[in-house]
Design a protein that fits this description.
Helix 5 links the parallel strand 9 and strand 10. Helix 7 packs across helix 13. The strands form three sheets. Strands 1, 2, 3, 4, 5, 6 and 7 form a seven-stranded mixed beta sheet that branches. The protein contains 13 helices and 16 strands. Helices cover 37% and strands 18% of the residues. Keywords: ATP-binding, Kinase, Nucleotide-binding, Transferase.
Length: 406
């Protein structure tokens, strides 16, 4: 079996394989996870601050060997499954199958063993960075390195969207530090609790040979004004609710204003092109929505405004799309076109409900398959008694009040 882990899991996998998560040799099982949560140690008492976990599909069972792939399909590791939980978590040791080459600045990556070999007998001052080093931090690093007669090892924690900028900041800082300073990107995903994140950074610094560890200052994030940020406007609703027509009207209104770059991803058009060949099973419908979300997030990543209008019946998949957008620094606006089923069926312009009632279309949303109404919608519109123009005006009003359109 082959499986591509999520981004955070891939980052943890790379650190497991490199030895940066020493003494861990694989993803944690139930006993270790319980001990980490309760005592901040592994089950055998070894200090370890945070869970390191992996989700696998249902078919993976204890005793199976699963090949873990990078996003380009390159085998990274073999996982021998030793435990499988009801929540999808799988535990077991990992064995490397090849070097991690995905992501930027791959040429700068070194394992802890390689860095310790470069250091020789000299001590290391390891500096972990999630943002640039300001002037006081540079002064402290320089003075401490001189006091210890240590080699400065900058570890830019290059996880996710901010990763490349952190590496560039480390390379810039290197020019202000001793000539033998090393820069080694480490894809360490941040943990939610600052104290645990710092403790994990200490562990990684130790693995890289730190005689002393300094944590660089946390970056100050000042988002740009809304009208310059990327935005995904995501319409969801039953077939015939009017969402596609409202989305087209919004696209036209925004193009007339001319103040935003607009990408329109209509559900039917995506089905015919981007998702051609997919069925209407739950798995394929989820995949269709993820593809829409990925393209929308890529458009928003660069400051664009993406409009999506699929049915998107499942709350979990809509949440994934929201996460895709927010993970690239974009905003997300969920619009629930809440026209009742009876009205949608009365319209039935394409004859789909009639076919579904006759059993000709299996798994049809609202008839033979559920529609999970969102409880996190930013705007709710019922088109039963209002015109499309009025509905478009409501959405445009929300964009103006949120500052996304001027």
């Amino acid at each position: 079996m082959e499986w591509t882990p999520e981004a955070r899991e891939l980052a943890d996998l790379e650190l497991l394989l490199s030895g940066a998560f020493e003494p861990l040799t694989g993803f944690l099982g139930h006993d270790d996870l319980h001990a980490v949560h309760e005592r901040g140690t592994l089950a055998d008492g070894t200090p370890w601050p945070v869970p390191v976990t992996l989700h696998l599909p249902e078919e993976a069972a204890p005793g199976d060997e699963v090949t873990l792939l990078d996003p380009e399909g390159v085998p990274l590791a073999a996982l021998t499954v030793t435990e499988r939980g009801h929540d999808g978590l799988a535990a077991g040791p990992v064995r490397g199958l090849g070097a991690a080459e995905h992501g930027p600045f791959a040429r700068l990556r070194r394992t802890p063993a390689e860095v310790r070999a470069l250091l020789g007998d000299r001590p290391a001052l390891v500096v972990t960075m999630r943002g640039p080093l300001d002037e006081p931090a540079l002064t402290e690093v320089t003075a401490t390195a001189k006091e210890l007669d240590a080699v400065v090892v900058l570890l830019p924690l290059s996880y996710g969207e901010p990763g490349p900028a952190v590496v560039r900041a480390a390379l810039k800082a290197k020019d202000r530090l001793p000539e033998d300073t090393l820069v080694v990107p480490v894809p360490l995903a941040p943990r939610e609790e600052p104290e645990l994140d710092l403790e994990l950074r200490e562990h990684v610094a130790t693995a890289y040979g730190a005689a002393e560890h300094l944590a660089g200052p946390e970056p100050v994030s000042i988002p740009g004004p809304p009208h310059r940020r990327g935005l995904v406007v995501f319409f969801t609703g039953l077939s015939g609710s009017g969402k596609s027509t409202i989305a087209r009207g919004l696209r036209d209104a925004l193009l007339e204003l001319g103040s935003r770059t607009v990408t329109h991803l209509d559900g039917d058009v995506v089905r015919a092109l981007l998702s051609k060949g997919l069925t209407f099973s739950k798995a394929d419908r989820d995949l269709n929505i993820r593809r829409i979300g990925f393209v929308a997030a890529e458009a928003a990543r660069h400051g664009g405004l993406a409009i999506c209008a699929p049915i998107a019946p499942y709350a979990a998949t809509r949440a994934e799309v929201r996460e895709m957008a927010e993970s690239v620094g974009a905003d997300f606006l969920l619009v629930h076109v809440a026209t009742p089923l009876e009205e949608c069926e009365r319209r039935d312009r394409k004859g789909l409900y009639a076919k579904a009632r006759a059993g000709l279309i299996p798994e049809f949303t609202g008839v033979s398959d559920p529609y999970e109404e969102p409880d996190d919608a930013d705007l709710v519109i019922d088109t039963t008694h209002i015109s499309i123009e009025a509905a478009v005006s409501q959405v445009l009003g929300a964009l103006r009040s949120g500052g996304w359109v001027r």
